[in-house]
Amino acid sequence: MSDFAEIILDGKTYQMPIVVGTEDEKAIDISALRAQSGYVTLDPGYKNTGATTSAITFLDGEEGILRYRGYPIEQLAEKSSFIEVAYLLIYGHLPSEEELNAFSDRIKRHTLVNEDMRKILDGFPSTAHPMGILSALVSSLTAFYPESLNPNQSKEEVDLSIIRLLAKISTIAAWSYKNSQGHPVIYPKNKLDYCSNFLNMMFAYPTEDYQIDPVVVSALNKLLILHADHEQNCSTSTVRLVGSANASLYSSVSAGISALWGPLHGGANQAVIEMLEEIKADGGDSKKFIEKAKDKNDPFRLMGFGHRVYKNFDPRAKIIKKAADEVLTALGVKDPILNIAKELEEAALNDPYFVERKLYPNVDFYSGIIYRAIGIPTNMFTVMFALGRLPGWIAQWKELREQKEPIGRPRQIYTGETERDYVPMEKR
Ligand code: CMC
């Protein structure tokens, strides 16, 4: 294989270096192309643009492979815990028992949020979407820890910011839900593990304890692990882009939360359940909705179907589909929308429109069904995605800093008016 690619422009040949990753992924490094030739590359939606080199997550959309730091997602979902996976993503290796205990204890010690945060929370109406609250409160951590704004923080200071964010996000997330209910918040209990503590803050009341069910804790661990990183997707690229301006960890992650909120990204898990409910309310005819999704004059899309990179199957969807069956059976939940989901999946997988376009169920198609079964309300689904994705965002932000990447600043091809003179109001 040659070490460079040749690009011929206006009869002149330019040599651009080839970059090869550890999994033999190949790229043409065109960073010098504009300076040498005046040309930029155009790639709306970054469908074919590598924005960085990264050692965190490998995914192969054609083969349905997803690995964090080299470890297959199937093994991590089966054998690991969310906190262990967070450590792996952020620090690059599986922790020893001692490292894991120290990491987990530190997170437990920082779960409390400043009481003044409650005052900010109180200012939100109960109609506020929990994702908006989450993004605002994560950004407001900069006010409580202004030292996090310093781009030259030491390694120890960065570590403390990371621990604080991992610890406080579950308190903030659970409190955003309590706020939407108009209920008093529940304080963290540090004797509990990460997932149990979150569930307790969500479902306990000052008047009533919450019984922690190991089936629910295990399902939550699995879901969070499956969402923990996914290389350069929309929210992660947002985190890296904001972070590249030397913005703090909290501001960068807050921006990532806003990106994740969109229904084409993390918001899809909420949209899937709303779609399944709509189909049920309409009489349960999944074929009718398949036809709607295929109709180019109808804005309806089959939510939970299709993926920018997975074109064969989404390995997370495989794990989640099996987990959904297990959790619903263990909890004795009979959810009619699970049947609609299965009918829809079967109909779509046999329909040439979906087959030709390689549209398969993605991670969000079944995650909402598990969240529903374990009692998470629909408007909290995307918040759950954010909780899961947090270690990935942190790892990517940290990597960007350590690689000393330049500020992100794409180019464009201008298509507007050429120069023209200002026209006074009376002559328009
Ligand atoms: N229902 C119906 N048609 C679809 C769908 C769908 N869900 N997804 C894609 N298509 C069609 C699309 O209309 C286009 O058809 P044509 O070639 O005839 O114009 C073709 O398939 C390619 O679609 P695209 O929009 O160019 O593909 P993309 O890679 O830009 O978009 C996607 C990927 C995930 C945004 C899209 O598939 C989609 O909108 N899916 C539904 C939303 C969803 O489930 N999002 C969650 C993604 S997984 C969680 C995450 O990681 O964020």
Explain this structure to me?
By secondary structure, the chain is mainly alpha-helical. It folds into two domains: 4-50, Rubrerythrin, domain 2, CATH 2.20.28; 73-406, Citrate Synthase, domain 1. Helices cover 52% and strands 7% of the residues. The chain has 18 helices and six strands. A three-stranded antiparallel sheet has the order 1-2-3. Strands 4-5-6 form a three-stranded antiparallel sheet. β5 (65-68) and β6 (71-72) form a beta hairpin. α6 (130-144) packs antiparallel against α7. The longest helix has 27 residues, at 155-181. The protein is globular and about 75 Å long. It starts with a strand and ends in a 26-residue tail after the last helix. The chain binds carboxymethyl coenzyme *A.
Show the helix and strand layout.
Layout: E1 4-9, E2 12-20, E3 26-28, H1 33-37, E4 57-60, E5 65-68, E6 71-72, H2 73-79, H3 82-91, H4 97-109, H5 115-122, H6 130-144, H7 155-181, H8 194-203, H9 214-227, H10 234-243, H11 249-261, H12 268-281, H13 286-294, H14 315-331, H15 336-349, H16 352-356, H17 363-373, H18 381-402
Antiparallel strand pairs: 1-2, 2-3, 4-5, 5-6
Bound molecules: carboxymethyl coenzyme *A.
Could you write a compact summary of the structure shown?
The chain has 428 residues and is mainly alpha-helical. Helix content is 52%, strand content 7%.
> What is the CATH topology classification name of the largest domain?
Citrate Synthase, domain 1
Approximate helicity band: 40-55%
Radius of gyration: 23 Å
Poorly predicted runs of 5 or more residues: none
Question: Which architecture of the largest domain would the CATH scheme give at its second level?
Answer: Orthogonal Bundle
Question: How many DSSP helices?
Answer: 18
- How many discrete structural domains? 2
Classified in CATH, the superfamily of the largest domain is Citrate Synthase, domain 1
User: What's the N-to-C terminus distance?
Assistant: 61 Å
Q: In what order do the strands lie side by side in the largest sheet?
A: 1-2-3
Number of strands: 6
- Would you state the CATH class of the largest domain? Mainly Alpha
Overall average pLDDT = 94
- List the ligand species: carboxymethyl coenzyme *A
**Major sheet attributes:** 3 strands, antiparallel
What spatial form do the alpha-carbon principal axes imply? globular
Which structural class should the secondary elements be placed in?
Answer: mainly alpha
Reading the helices and strands in chain order gives: EEEHEEEHHHHHHHHHHHHHHHHH
| DSSP strand content | 5-15%
